[in-house]
Structures are given as structure tokens and as C-alpha cells.
Design the sequence.
């Protein structure tokens, strides 16, 4: 057995084009978009690329990004969740009322709010699977209904302020000291590098093809550079925000679950071909209900993070363009609206794109009317690319 | 040996099957032929546990077998490849082969073990796919059909039922799939092949069973039968 037989051969140009035609673009369009955004806004406004603004950006991403992560769970099945914004607002209000008006322990209030989110998702899932209502109708009803419940719960006051020095508000005002940030970077690099190495050894032992060593090295090197760059920039300002670490942890954890457990595999299977999944003995109903539960629970958590940033909940919580931003982020990041394709990193990359565009336009004092139109245009573009890729992949 | 014995099934006014019997031996390819509506799919569904017969049933090595649903059939070693490929186009070959019966340690997928067995299985069937980690959507029709058939072998069945496996394929890819069917026979499996294409049937089967209007209408050793006699049995014209 020589090295050539066990190294996965690189693609010929023809095969590479074929892969592109099938929508297998990976993260490259997003990376291109980010560079373009950095160049354009960076040259229009010198403050855009400053450590302070980039740190703000990291802080702004977490809440909507978490909601987007939940939306990915239903998009993977080829369904949609239009209620995520309202559910995030509702659960944030539940948390605020319990912890402020009722004086509960804030952690307990958060747990109950998350459970409320899970319950909402369970209801959506049951309406979708048992009553066979289209997901878009179920969650459209949810969009209006849960916002109604939010207004009802808030009642006269219409606003609940969270104490600035309370646990919830502190979440978004906690910054990692540099040593801790660097320790986390080192651990991430070590763990991902180590697991690549072990995986390589095991594959070679099983006489399975492995990617060329230089490619693995480039990937680890790239990860190191990106992480180190981010920590350097943010440490030049207030430091790495805890909120970003929480969001990042969720993204990585869900990625591992989707790729390395049978549950995750079945999510992709149901999104790819429901009939095939059913014939393979997979409980399609259970997967669908779980996806809606995950979506609403993550929406609830996103809502809590958002309340933490604002130190308050009000009638506008979870409203405005949050839902559109969350869906746009998922699609821009490469999650297909048609199901079966996408990774959790889409939430991270997509929200980075859309939030930096929004942030840049704020800096340039662009009117909100224009901001809405630009956001919609970016979403439309991402969906167009997704649709074209799908046409390429269906024979 | 797996056999269907005196199977009858009625759909409203239509007697889809009337006392149909069929024997399937290890290492033998049996072709089930008949005109549209002859009852071929209905018979397959009974054997595969998708529907229950009104009377009669399936026997395994002479013992009557209880087949209440497709899982029972699978447990008894009966594996079916349906006409519309039951593959997930977005998943790779390994994931499709093991779909629903993933190898895992606790809840974590054993990627390497699955890929190793997938490779061994495909190699033993002489199915050539350059990279089994790409989505199935990127394979040719013949490769996909081969993956669907290979998938039927994951549970180590005794009988593989193939419903029109070459219907949607071109000449070269049909040849690939027929080769694969021969290899199933070499493995000592019983194969039940449903086909409209008499050329395919004659190329690959050992025995031909003809259904007409829901009844047994003839049985031939492929080597001895002429095309005319098979066609006559299918159409009901006097031979
Ligand atoms: N689910 C069903 N409901 C009613 N009639 C059916 C059903 N399935 C099959 N039939 C009838 O049973 C007969 C046999 O059908 P089938 O087994 O599909 O034939 P073949 O596969 O040989 O073309 C046909 O007359 C068909 O119309
Ligand atoms: Mg049929």
C-alpha cells in the first residue's frame, strides 16, 4: 500500500465545476461577501473596522444568531419557522416577569422561560405532524398569537426593566480577561488539531483514504489565524464578550450533534427524502417535533440574550426585523430552504454578514427605510443562489 | 427456501391475486413477469409485509411465517428495493447504505467502521464509485441503483426483491445492474426480479414465473424457454 492509494485525490477541474454546479460552494461565497463588506464599509467610514466597533458587532450578533441557529433546525427538514421572533420576545418577557415582578432567582426564571419555549415548539410540532397543517401556517399563526400573548403578559406597564447589575444584564456585560480568551483559543486549536490527527491515524489504520496532510495543516492553521485575529482585535477593546462565547459554544455543540449522532443524520435524511427516511425505519414524526422544539427553545434563549443586551423587555421585544434577519442569516450562511443541506456554522457566518451590513449602515447614518430594503435584497440574493443550486442538484 | 403459498388478495371488485404460489431458492434469480395489472406488485407487497393477504401466506423453509409489517419481513431476511429509489440524495453513499441502521458507539456514529464496511461491500459487489463521500445526487443512475441494491444487503438478508430495477436506465447502466444481480446470486441469495423487459429477464434469470390476471400462468426454466412461449403465457394466447 503506497501513499498515493490512501490519499484522497484532489478533484479534477471538471469535477470541481460539477461540485459547484451542485451548490456545493462551501463557505467561500460568505468569505467573499465578508471581505467585500470590510473593504466597502471600511473605506466609507474609518470607524467601521475599529476594535470598538468590531467588538460591538460581536456583541450584537449573539442574540439573533442564536435564533437563527434554531431556524436552521427546521430549515434542515425543508420546513420554516416564522414564529421564532415572537417566541423569543414572549420567552424573554416570561423570564423578565418571573425574575423582576415575581422576584424569582434569575437562573430559575431562565430555565422556566426555556421550558416555555420548548412547550411552544412542542405545540407547533404537534400541529404540524398530527393535524398536518403546513409549517408555514402553523408558525405564521404563532407569529401573531405569541406576540399577542406577549402584549397580554406585559399588560399596562408595557415594559419590564432588568436591574443593570442583575445576573441577566451582566451576561452581556461580561468580558473575558485576555488570558482566558487565549486559553480558550489554545484549547480549541489543540482539540481540533488533535482530533484531526487521531482521525487520520484511525482512517489510515482502517485503510481508508485521508486528505493530504498539508490540507489538514492549512485548515488548522487557518482556524488558528482566525481565532487569534479575533481575540487580538477584541482584546484591544473591552475583550471577548461572554455573549459571543455562549453563541459560539451553541454553534459548535449543535454542529457536533448534527454530524456525529444518529439523530443528526436522521434530520438530514428527513430533509433530503422523507419517504426514504420513513422506509429506513426512522420515526419522521419524532424528528419533526424535535426540530420544532429545538427551534423554539433556541429562539427563547436568543430572546433572553437580547433582553440582556437591552436590560429590558418591552412590547417590541422579538419584533421588527429580527425574524427576517435570523432567516436571512441562515440562508446566507448556506442553509438550503429546500431542506437537507446546511450546517450550524451558517448561523455564525450568515449573522456576521447581515449584522455587519446593518452595523455599517448605522455608522453611515443610512435611513432605516434603506436599511430594510438592503437587508431584503441580501436575503433575496441568498435565496436566489440557493434556488439555482437546487436546480443544479436535481437531475 | 422462501415461498408464497396460495396467496389471494382482493381490492374491492378487483381480484388482484387468486391462489398464487411462488418458490424462491437460495442462489437462484426468479423473474416475475406479467402484463400491467397482473398482480406482480401486489404479490411483492405481500411477501415484503407491506400488505396482508386475504388468504394464503408466506412460508420460510416450510414453516408458515408471520409477516405483519415490513419490519417483520426484514427480520426474517426479506429485503426489498422499490422502484422509486429510496435514497436520500443529499447524503453520501455511506450514510445511505446505513440509513436507519447506523453503526454507533453509545449514541456517537462510528464513521470509520461504516465507511470501511461500505467499501468492502461495494468492492465485493464490484460497484465502482470514485468517492463514496460525495452526495448521492452526484452519481449516475446506474450507480444510484447499485447503491440502492447494496443497501438492501446491509441486514444480511436471504431474499432480495427488486421491483423494475432497470426501468429508468440506459444500456450501459442496465448492464451494470444486471451484473450486480448475478453477483447477488453468487453470494447465495434468493433474488426475485420484477421486470417488463424480457431481454433483461432472459439475460439474468434462472426461472421465469408468469402472472396473468392475478393467477399463476406458467413457469419456465429460462434456459429452456423461448421468448415466444413466455410472451404467449403473458398475453394468454395459446402457445
Ligand atoms: N391499492 C390498491 N387499491 C385498489 N386496487 C389495486 C390496488 N393495488 C393494486 N390494485 C389492483 O390490483 C391489480 C393488480 O395490480 P398490481 O399488483 O399493481 O399489478 P402489476 O404490478 O402486475 O402491474 C390491478 O388491477 C390494480 O388495479
Ligand atoms: Mg407494478
Sequence:
Amino acid at each position: 500500500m503506497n501513499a498515493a492509494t490512501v490519499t484522497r485525490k484532489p478533484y479534477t477541474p471538471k469535477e470541481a465545476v460539477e461540485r459547484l454546479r451542485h451548490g456545493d460552494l462551501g463557505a467561500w461565497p460568505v468569505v467573499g461577501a465578508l471581505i467585500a463588506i470590510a473593504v466597502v464599509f471600511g473605506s466609507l467610514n474609518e470607524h467601521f473596522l475599529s476594535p470598538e466597533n468590531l467588538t460591538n458587532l460581536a456583541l450584537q450578533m449573539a442574540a439573533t444568531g442564536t435564533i437563527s441557529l434554531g431556524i436552521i433546525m427546521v430549515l434542515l427538514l425543508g420546513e420554516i419557522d416564522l414564529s421564532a421572533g415572537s417566541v423569543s420576545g414572549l420567552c424573554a418577557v416570561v423570564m423578565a416577569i418571573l425574575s423582576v415582578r415575581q422576584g424569582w432567582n434569575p437562573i430559575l426564571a431562565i430555565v422556566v422561560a426555556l421550558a416555555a419555549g420548548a412547550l411552544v415548539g412542542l405545540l407547533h410540532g404537534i400541529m404540524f405532524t398530527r393535524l398536518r397543517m403546513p409549517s408555514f401556517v402553523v408558525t405564521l399563526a404563532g407569529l401573531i398569537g405569541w406576540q399577542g400573548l406577549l402584549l397580554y403578559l406585559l399588560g399596562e406597564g408595557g415594559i419590564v426593566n432588568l436591574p443593570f447589575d442583575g445576573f441577566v444584564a451582566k451576561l452581556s456585560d461580561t468580558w473575558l480577561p485576555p488570558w482566558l480568551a487565549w486559553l480558550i483559543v489554545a484549547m480549541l486549536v489543540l482539540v481540533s488539531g488533535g482530533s484531526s490527527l487521531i482521525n487520520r491515524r484511525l482512517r489510515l489504520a482502517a485503510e481508508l483514504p485521508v486528505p493530504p496532510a498539508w490540507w489538514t495543516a492549512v485548515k488548522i492553521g487557518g482556524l488558528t489565524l482566525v481565532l487569534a485575529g479575533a481575540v487580538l482585535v477584541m482584546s484591544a477593546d473591552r475583550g471577548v464578550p461572554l455573549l459571543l462565547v455562549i453563541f459560539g459554544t451553541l454553534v459548535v455543540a449543535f454542529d457536533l450533534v448534527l454530524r456525529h449522532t444518529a439523530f443528526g443524520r436522521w434530520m438530514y435524511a428527513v430533509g433530503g427524502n422523507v419517504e426514504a427516511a420513513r422506509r429506513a425505519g426512522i420515526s419522521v414524526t419524532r424528528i419533526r417535533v424535535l426540530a420544532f422544539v429545538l427551534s423554539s427553545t433556541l429562539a427563547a434563549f436568543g430572546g433572553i440574550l437580547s433582553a440582556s443586551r437591552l436590560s429590558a423587555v418591552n412590547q417590541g421585544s422579538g419584533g421588527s426585523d429580527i425574524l427576517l434577519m435570523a432567516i436571512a442569516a441562515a440562508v446566507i450562511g448556506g442553509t438550503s430552504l429546500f431542506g437537507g443541506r446546511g450546517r450550524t456554522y451558517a448561523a455564525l457566518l450568515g449573522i456576521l454578514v447581515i449584522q455587519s451590513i446593518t452595523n455599517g449602515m448605522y455608522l453611515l447614518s443610512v435611513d432605516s427605510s434603506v436599511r430594510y430594503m438592503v437587508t431584503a435584497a441580501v436575503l433575496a440574493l441568498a435565496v436566489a443562489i440557493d434556488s439555482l443550486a437546487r436546480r443544479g442538484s436535481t437531475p | 427456501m422462501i415461498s408464497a403459498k396460495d396467496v389471494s388478495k382482493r381490492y374491492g371488485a378487483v381480484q388482484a391475486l387468486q391462489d398464487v404460489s411462488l418458490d424462491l431458492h437460495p442462489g437462484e434469480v426468479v423473474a416475475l413477469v406479467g402484463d400491467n395489472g397482473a398482480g406482480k406488485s401486489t404479490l411483492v407487497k405481500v411477501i415484503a409485509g407491506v400488505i396482508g393477504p386475504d388468504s394464503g401466506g408466506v412460508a420460510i423453509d416450510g414453516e408458515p411465517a408471520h409477516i405483519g409489517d415490513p419490519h417483520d419481513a426484514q427480520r426474517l431476511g426479506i429485503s426489498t428495493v422499490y422502484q422509486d429509489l429510496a435514497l436520500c440524495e443529499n447524503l453520501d453513499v455511506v450514510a445511505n447504505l446505513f440509513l436507519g441502521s447506523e453503526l454507533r458507539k453509545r449514541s456517537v456514529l462510528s464513521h470509520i467502521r461504516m465507511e470501511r464496511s461500505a467499501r468492502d461491500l461495494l468492492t465485493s459487489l464490484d460497484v465502482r464509485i470514485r468517492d463514496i463521500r460525495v452526495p448521492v445526487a452526484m452519481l449516475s443512475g446506474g450507480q444510484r441503483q447499485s447503491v440502492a441494491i447494496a443497501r438492501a444487503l446491509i441486514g444480511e438478508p436471504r431474499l432480495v426483491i427488486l421491483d423494475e430495477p432497470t426501468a429508468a436506465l440506459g444500456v450501459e447502466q442496465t448492464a451494470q445492474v444486471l451484473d450486480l444481480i448475478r453477483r447477488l446470486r453468487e453470494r447465495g441469495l434468493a433474488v426475485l426480479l420484477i421486470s417488463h423487459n424480457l431481454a433483461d429477464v432472459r439475460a439474468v434469470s434462472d426461472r421465469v414465473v408468469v402472472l396473468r390476471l392475478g393467477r399463476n400462468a406458467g413457469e419456465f426454466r429460462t434456459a429452456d424457454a423461448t421468448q415466444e412461449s413466455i410472451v404467449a403465457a403473458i398475453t394468454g394466447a395459446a402457445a
